[in-house]
Amino acid sequence: MIQGNEACAEGAVAAGLCFFAGYPITPSTEIAEVLSEKLPVLGRTFIQMEDEIASMAAIIGASIGGCKAMTATSGPGFSLMQENIGFACAAEIPCVVVNVQRMGPSTGQPTSPAQGDLMQARWGTHGDHPIIVLYPSSVKEAFNLTVKAFNFSEKYRTPVILLMDEVVAHMREKVDIPAPDKLEIFERVKPTCQPEEYFPFGDAENGVPPLANFGEGYRFHITGLLHDKMGFPTLRADEILAWYERVFRKINSNLEDILLYEDVMIEDAEYAIIACGISARSARAAVRQARAAGKKLGMVKLLTITPFPDKHINEIASKVKNILVPELNFGQLILDVQRAAKGQCEVNGLNRVDGEIITPGQILERMGLKN
Amino acid sequence: MDTCADEREMPSVYHYLRQNKKFPTVWCPGCGIGIVLKAIIRAVADLGLDKDKVAMVSGIGCSGRMAAYVDFNTLHTTHGRALSFATGLKLAKPEMKVIVVMGDGDAMAIGGNHFIHTAARNMDIAAIVINNLTYGLTRGQYSPTTPFGSVAATAPYGSIDQPFDICKTAEAAGATFVARSVVTYVLEAEKFIARAIDKKGFSVVEIMSNCHTYFGRSNQKATALQMMNWLKDITVPASAKAEEKAGKLERGIFVDKELPDYLEHYKEVVRKAQEMREKEIHHDHS
């Protein structure tokens, strides 16, 4: 029996985390505490920085040195990290950022669950950019998705955000931690060419150029300025366009790999729920109860919320009478669902923002499926 | 003219400049940052460092652009955060020499917190702060080192902030090597920089530089020469007599002490952690 935060730390270690930098903040702190104990035993690095800005900068620096790197925080810290998350997007530096969400803007309510940072995880840093956001709904998924987060970040040279709900982070559940050889771990692709032929930001078949570690013979330049294939700042429209086209292509042409979701009794469903995190747990119970009463309710649990499975949700919208999106905010996930549904069916929200989670009964009542 | 001496040294400087990067630089004619660039290169050359094992990490502003020109592992980061990026890199690659180049805005304003904490940790980094008393890239707003009363783009009636002393801040925060020079004393600057790079621990070298284009033009020093001469006038060697120092900034080495750096302490953490783990395993088995 371990906590979601502990599972996240365990998943990170299993994925090969060798550098953690962070700043204490509720409700994420256990991740740092667990890693401060574990990483030194493994001869890897844990460092507590002076703030979240420095933490984010340090993990990028460590990743450039070849380490799998992560930080963990909550809302206020996540806001502070945004500029450097953008740097990692621009420079295509693999790293994992865990945001255990708290309620409300500003200091808000640090110990209550909320799902208010979905849009910030997608659009938090300035300027148009692609990013990957994963969202566990159980302690086991916290482990598995942390591993996935590292794999995606290394594979696609991008920061990956792991959004957690406070209740998942602090919930204790049984997790069978797989043996290291049973885990699929992706290692960063490094260049094999001669240094003078190396283009750290050049094109590649999957849109992801190999990334050399600093200090290993490929001397190159990394900048947050828009850059050419060598990494030097550029104002040339053709070079900027090529960069933008490629960084979006590397995500959008690999959606089959990146989009993780779980269908529950969706094949014959007349009604559907689309949910993530703790709200998906309640949704699953609602589906079970509705089915027991002979009502055709199904659901999709989203594990990847960015990019969004538009095609899949669109297909579901074409078959069901209506979709409900339960979430602990005033309506964020629903915006993506509505866009994907393209008006083919009714899409309704169920929003709770009082620090409590949505119950299965509330879902069934909202859908008119309660006995 | 000693052009011969100059020609002799050129190949060594060229060796450290990127051949695939377009010159000239972004800096104004007469800017002191180029002098600091050459001093850093000569320091690295004097130390005989392998280019593959040198990283230059820079912040934002005129000084931030330096990283693109040198043939090292180069990282042009966000404003004020260069030291934090460098901390991660140094811990990931302890065998690398990490040189951080910042401006006065990077080091004392937006990145002031990182500056004092990196010093307190005694992270093995050489921080070169090019202090031109202004925000040059954004056209001359007042900075944390702008002298009191100076006119700036955002202080048309004169700046009323008390300027920071970069070296005293570094010393108070725990840097193990602290020195100040001026771009007009090239050999001294080079010597301090070489010592900072070579020395283990957090080293700070402040190089006072001229931004005649913005600071100078607003403060009756509109040419590079005028501003350089003024920098010479307002500074004095640390070895000078007390009466000569009155109202002036000192040049020289202020701190040069030996203390274990962060990595040395961290090695001890790893040793303790592994020892405790061994004991636990032993305990479980017995």
Please give the number of β-strands of chain B: 10
Question: What is the CATH superfamily label of chain B?
Answer: Thiamin diphosphate (ThDP)-binding fold, Pyr/PP domains
The biggest sheet of chain A, with number of strands, parallel, antiparallel or mixed sense and barrel status, is: 7 strands, mixed
Q: How confident is the prediction overall: mean pLDDT of chain A?
A: 97
How would you sum up this structure in a few lines?
The complex is a heterodimer of chains A (371) and B (286). Chain A has 371 residues and is of the alpha/beta class. Chain A is built from 13 helices and 15 strands.
Explain the overall architecture.
The complex is a heterodimer of chains A (371) and B (286). Chain A is of the alpha/beta class and 371 residues long. Chain A folds into 2 domains: 2-182, 3-Layer(aba) Sandwich (Rossmann fold), CATH 3.40.50; 260-366, 3-Layer(aba) Sandwich (Rossmann fold). Chain A is 39% helix and 19% strand. Chain A is built from 13 helices and 15 strands. In chain A, helix 10 (278-292) links the parallel strand 11 (271-275) and strand 12 (297-302). The longest helix of chain A is centred in the middle third of the chain and has 18 residues, at 139-156. Chain A is globular, with a radius of gyration of 21 Å. By secondary structure, chain B is of the alpha/beta class. Chain B has 11 helices and 10 strands. Chain B has helices spanning 3-15, 33-47, 82-92, 104-110, 112-121, 166-173, 186-198, 212-218, 224-234, 242-245, 262-285, and strands at 54-58, 73-76, 97-103, 126-131, 134-135, 141-142, 177-182, 203-208, 235-237, 249-256. Chain B has an 8-stranded mixed β-sheet with strand order 2-1-3-4-8-7-10-9, with helices on both faces. In chain B, strands 5-6 form a two-stranded antiparallel ribbon. In chain B, helix 4 packs across helix 5. Chain B is globular. The mean pLDDT of chain B is 95. The A-B interface holds A 18-19, 21, 37, 40-41, 43, 45, 47, 49-51, 53-55, 57-67, 69, 83-84, 87, 213-217, 219-225, 230, 232-233 and B 18, 20-22, 51-53, 55, 57, 67-68, 71-78, 81, 84-93, 95-96, 113-114, 117, 266, 269-270, 272-274, 276-277. Strand 9 of chain A pairs parallel with strand 2 (73-76) of chain B.
